[in-house]
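Consider the following input, taken from an annotated entry for VSTM5 protein (Certhia brachydactyla).
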Amino acid sequence: LMRPLQGCRGRSVVVGTVTLCLAAGWALQTPGGVSLVVPQPNINATVAQNILLSVEYSCRGVATIEWKHVSSWGTTSIVEWRSGNYVNISTVYKDRVTTFENGSIQLRNVGMRDAGYYFVTVMEEHGTNAYGTIIVNVYEIIYEDLHFVAVLFAFLAAVSAVLICFMWLCNKSLHLFQKKTTHKLTASTTEEIELETIEC
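Applying the prediction step yields:
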């Protein structure tokens, strides 16, 4: 009973080894294999800025690169192209996208709607795919806040100037009032002295 089991096990090992060798040989003979690197997976940008969605792929065969944008507004196809051949840019991005041989794209004049996830797929002609993701955050330049601060600063400067002028006028008036009071006191004292002299 033990011998047939060992024989079956031996045959299984041989069949497994042959299958593995054939698979390895097929893999080595089949051209293909694609790799993708995303050096900057997170990008912060301000409105109206140009951004570079940078990737680097390597591939033995001819690759097709596809970029998609996913946000709360939905999924939009940006561009698809085959290395060395056609470039198919979506009408939404027609005047805003530049493609590069390494698979990167540049997006010009970004707006708030451009925030979200950017998915890149590199498809090799023999069926091997590689995927990458870049998160883009877009921030507004808040001119209204800067305007408010500038107006507030100007208002405070004007109020300070008015207060300084008011204090100067008050000080001048007080000084004139003191002069007049001192003059009256001197005049009345002189009259009293003259009256006393006459009486004497």
